[in-house]
Amino acid sequence: MASKTNDVCSVTAVNYEKVNAVRKQLPQSSEIQALSDTFKVLGDPTRLKIVLALAKEELCVCDLATLIGLSVSAISHQLRLLRNMRLVRFRKEGKMVYYALDDQHIETIIGEAQTHVRE
Questions:
Q1: What gap in Å lies between CA 97 and CA 89, rounded to an integer?
Q2: What are the C-alpha distances in Å from 107 to residues 27, 98, 99, 119?
Q3: What is the pLDDT of residues 61-105, one digit of tens each?
Q4: Phi, psi angle pair for 51, to nearest 5°
Q5: What is each CA distance from 1 to 4, 5, 6, 7, in whole angstroms?
Q6: Which of 48, 46, 49, 50 is nearest to 60 (CA)?
Q7: Cα–Cα distance between 96 and 88 in angstroms, integer?
Q8: For a tag on the chain, would you pick the N or C end, based on fewer CB atoms within 10 A?
Q9: CA gap 108, 45 in Å, rounded
Q10: Who contacts 92 (Cβ-Cβ below 8 Å, separation ≥6)?
Q11: What is the CATH number of domain 15-118?
C-alpha cells in the first residue's frame, strides 16, 4: 500500500501552458453547476432505483411505489425532483400517468457508471 506522501508532488512546479490549455476547455460555471446538480439528484439511492426501473420499463407512480416499497406520495416527490432535472418525463393516458426516462442520455450515464462500478 502506498504511503500518503507518495500521492502528491514533492516539489511545487506549475505547468502554466497545460493549466491554461485545460482551463480553456472546461465548461462554463453554469454548465458545471448543472452537471453537479444532476449527479446530486442521481446520488440518492431511491431516485437511482427509480431511474434504473424506468430504464427497463415505462411505469406509473403506483407501479414504482410497489416496486421500491415506498408510498405513492414519497415516489411522487422523488419523481418531481427527477422531472425538474429533466431526467424523467411523463405522459397521461386517461386517468393514468406513466413515467419514462427523458431520453437515451440518462440510460447511457447510468450504464457507464454501472460499468465503472463493476470493473
A1: 10
A2: 22, 17, 14, 18
A3: 999 999 999 999 999 999 999 999 999 999 999 999 999 999 999
A4: -65, -45
A5: 9, 12, 10, 11
A6: 50
A7: 16
A8: N
A9: 18
A10: 98
A11: 1.10.10.10
